[in-house]
Specification:
alpha/beta, nine-stranded mixed sheet, three-stranded mixed sheet
Length: about 300
């Protein structure tokens, strides 16, 4: 059971703000992207945010692009392997990530006033193909604005549950309910997905026009039916432990596709990583500096 105000798929499909697809609101200060990686295709979304964390879904899609506006993982017609004939999965995935990055990260996005904007940062889910995703982010020409992402289902009963997931270590940075750090394999981010799924549904419950609302680009409800059904494919269970209240999210029976919910969650967490927060107060602190070692000399 939950006391969250949950939006329905019908209401979400109709929650559009009058801004055309691909156009960034003038009030936006950050443009973030998330890619959910699967064997057949890549699911992605681009979201614009203002300083109060008001969000506008600028664009979303499946890569390779599909012949219809509605697809499920089971009904996919075009796959990564089909776009890279004769290649194995690894090569097809790298090629698919590269072409999607050119299509989105290499693009100038138009604003309402006619100016241009570029994506500030993109997170790519590393859970399905960890080595390949890390290698792509490290070697891509867009590596400066790429990080790999891994979701962590942090429960109220978890030993280390908290806003920062764990204690800060040298070289790490912090956002809200996420941990970002560098390793030999590149820039990585751990995201508390229960927290950010709750955050997304609270944003969807806010009416358009109020600060902190999340809405979709202008289109008929039928155009948004796929994304609306995927975003609402999970339900929350309210749990308590160690003085914390956490909504644990579970997939609804018969609703296996939740890729766009993950995309919205990742785009929001990415904005927090860049310093945005509700009300405009900066949450993300500066990265922890690496500690200098002190030399100890033996006396003799």
């Amino acid at each position: 059971e939950s006391d969250l105000d949950l939006i329905t798929a019908d209401d979400l499909a109709a929650k559009t703000n009058g801004i055309k697809r691909g156009v960034v609101p003038d009030a936006s200060t950050k443009l973030t992207m998330f890619v959910d990686v699967w064997k057949k295709v890549l699911w992605w979304s681009v979201v614009a945010w203002d300083n109060a964390f008001t969000g506008h879904v600028v664009d979303y899609g499946i890569w390779p692009e599909q012949p219809t506006n509605y697809s499920t993982l089971a009904s996919i017609k075009k796959t990564l392997m089909m776009k890279k004939r004769g290649a194995g999965f690894e090569a097809a995935l790298i090629a698919g990530l590269g072409s999607l990055a050119d299509h989105t990260l290499g693009r100038e996005w138009q604003t309402e006033s006619g100016d241009v904007a570029r994506i500030d940062h993109c997170l790519i889910d590393e859970g399905y193909a960890t080595d390949q995703v890390r290698d792509f982010c490290k070697r891509s020409k867009f590596s400066a604005i790429l990080s790999t992402s891994k979701g962590v289902a942090w429960k109220a009963s978890s030993r280390w549950y908290g806003p920062t997931l764990s204690k800060a270590k040298p070289g790490e940075g912090r956002g809200d309910h996420l941990t970002q750090y560098r390793s030999k394999t590149g820039r990585r981010v751990l995201v508390d997905v229960f927290h950010w799924k709750t955050f997304i549904f609270r944003r969807l419950a806010v009416p358009i026009g109020d600060a902190g609302a999340l809405s979709l680009f202008e289109a008929k409800p039928s155009r948004h039916r796929m994304v609306a059904e995927q975003v609402t494919a999970e339900h929350p269970v309210k749990t308590e432990g160690q003085g914390q209240i956490v909504y644990e999210w579970k997939t609804l029976p018969g609703r296996p596709d939740n890729h766009f919910l993950d995309c919205f969650v990742g785009a929001a967490a990415c904005a927090s990583m860049l310093g945005l927060s509700l009300g405009g107060k900066r949450l993300a602190p500066k990265p922890v500096k690496k500690l200098k070692r002190k030399r100890v000399y033996a006396m003799g």
